[in-house]
Structures are given as C-alpha cells and as structure tokens.
Design goal:
Helix content is 27%, strand content 27%. By secondary structure, it is of the alpha+beta class. It folds into 2 domains: 117 residues, Aminotransferase class 4, branched-chain amino acid transferase, N-terminal domain (D-amino Acid Aminotransferase, Chain A, domain 1, 2-Layer Sandwich), CATH 3.30.470.10; 165 residues, Alpha-Beta Barrel (D-amino Acid Aminotransferase, Chain A, domain 2). β1 and β2 form a beta hairpin. The relative contact order is 0.16.
C-alpha cells in the first residue's frame, strides 16, 4: 500500500504514522462505522474527484441509517479532501472517508460514544489489476449469501457489513479466482465483494435491482447512464444464477475496480472468453468520464481547486 504524508482526522491534518485510534474504539469492536470509496483522477484541469458530492451524500445517508449524525457539514468534508490531496502532492488517488463510533462506554448501545471522522488518501491502481481491466477476471459464485435486508442494511456502506464480503473473497481466493459473486437471500444474483454486476444478453444489458440487496453503487449509476446514452437498453431486474454463464458478456463496476470485465465464471468462459464489444464500449466511455475526456460528463468531476504541490 502506498503511503501519503497526511491523514485528516477530526479537523486536523495528522502525519500518516500518527493517525491512530484508541484500542477501545467502539467501531473496532462492533463494526459501528460507515465509509466511502472515492477516486480522484488526473485531468487537463488538474486532479478531479469523480462524483464527489454523490459519494459524500451517500456517506451521510449511511451514517444516518446507523444513528450517527455527522459532526461536519459535507462542504467542510469536501474542502478538507481537496486540501488533503494538495498537501500530499497527489495528482490522482483513492479517497477513504470514514465515520465511526469512537472510544467511550463499552457495550452494544453505541449512542453515548462520540462520532469521529477521518479521511485518508493514497495512490492506488485498479483494485483488481490493470490486466483485469484489459482481459477480464475469473470469478466464482460464493457459497456465502449476501446479507439479507431483514438482518442488516444493504444500502448502507457500513464497516461491519463487509465481513460478508471478506468471507466470500477469502473463499474464492483460496480456490484460485480473482473475484466472488454473491447471490441474495432468494438465490438471485446480487453483486461482487465490492462491485455491482452487469450481464449482457442479445445486445441488451441487465443488472440486479436495488431489491436484490445490492449497494446502490455510484459507479453502477454512472455505467447505466453511459450505456443508455450509447443507445443501449438497460433493464434492472432479478438475474438468475444460470444467466451468468449463458451471458454473452459480464462486467463489474465499482470505485476501486472501476469497470472490469468478467471472462470466466465457475470455470465457464463468458461468451467466447474474450471481452465483448458492449463491455469494451461502455468501459471506454466510462474511463473517459473518469479522466475528464468526455465533455458530456464533465459535471461529474469535482476539480481540486487548491493547486497540488507537484
């Protein structure tokens, strides 16, 4: 993992090695935290954060679902992120804001523990690798099911909930695959460990709906918008497991993974085992949007107004 110089913690810029929490931090014991994954890209206008406002709004909503009131206005978090990128001299980076219950009374009732906020940034390439973006990944349907909305809140990007994805990731990694696909509690296709999933059949795109326990991904929304702008039909509906292997193309989207094709699922090649034309076209425009090359999507970029030190 690439290190930066500073991390923002509760209003202060703290040296990387000094950004620490108490061992009795509530979130460390009970998972009472929410977070976001955001990226900034180098563009001709300077570093620009992709759909920053939407990510911060989701952070606030996730916190509210777990009874945490943000102690900072979203504009303050936006400004802090801009200055943090500049202080660290970064032109492109991954951004991780975290809202969590801190050190206080121990026990399951968290409401007396303080709500704390940190933001970290660091250089991070494609989550599943540059080769994965070019050639696609091998995936396996996990034996672990996605958390049920009767148990937790799939629409919240909550720290503790990701134990579900951790178990699935370890399972398929041990079996020699790059990524896991989880089914929901009804047996329908849900998502990857950290990505939404799209299936291409007969020139049309289908993707699981929000009722399938998915996280409402911001990259997902972006890919849907781009695909429709390209004249492609996109339908949100339940997807049967068998459709994954019968599909012509499959791809995943997420802030960390960006848009990554899937070339094989459960040892079955997807389509011909090569990245298909629809995936490639949506990926091309998606990458252009991330890097500010697509005029149509310039409004998605939050340019870092504080000049970088590089």
């Amino acid at each position: 993992m690439s290190r930066a110089d500073y991390i923002w913690m509760n209003g202060d810029f703290v040296p990387w090695d000094e950004a620490q929490v108490h061992v009795l931090t509530h979130a460390l014991h009970y998972g009472t935290g929410v977070f976001e994954g955001i990226r900034a890209y180098e563009t001709e206008r300077g570093p620009a954060i992709f759909r920053h406002h939407e990510h911060l709004e989701r952070l606030k909503r996730s916190a509210a679902l777990y009874y945490m009131e943000l102690p900072y206005q979203l504009e303050k978090l936006r400004e802090a992120t801009h200055e943090l990128i500049a202080r660290n001299g970064l032109r492109s980076c991954y951004i991780r804001p975290l809202v969590y219950r801190g050190h206080g009374p121990m026990g399951l009732d968290p409401l007396s523990n303080p709500v704390e906020v940190s933001i970290a940034v660091w250089e991070w390439g494609a989550y599943l690798g540059d080769e994965a973006k070019a050639r696609g990944v091998r995936a396996k349907v996990s034996s672990w099911r996605r958390i049920s909305p009767d148990s937790l809140i799939p629409h919240a990007k909550a720290s503790g909930q990701y134990l579900n994805s951790v178990l699935a990731k370890i399972e398929v990694s041990h079996a020699g695959y790059e990524e896991a696909i989880l089914l929901d509690d009804h047996g329908h296709v849900c998502e990857g460990t950290g990505e939404n999933i799209f299936v291409v059949m007969d020139g049309k795109i289908v993707t699981p709906p929000q009722t399938a326990s998915i996280l409402d991904g911001i990259s997902r929304r972006s890919a849907i918008k781009i695909a429709r702008d390209l004249g492609l039909e996109v339908t949100e509906r339940d997807v049967a497991r068998a459709e994954l292997t019968l599909a012509d193309e499959v791809f995943m989207t997420g802030t960390a993974a960006e848009l990554t094709p899937v070339r094989e699922i459960d040892d079955h090649p997807v389509g011909g085992g090569e990245v298909g034309p629809i995936t490639r076209e949506v990926q091309r425009v998606f990458d252009d949007a991330l890097c500010g090359r697509a005029e149509r999507y310039r409004e998605w970029l939050d340019v870092v107004e504080v000049p970088s030190t590089v």
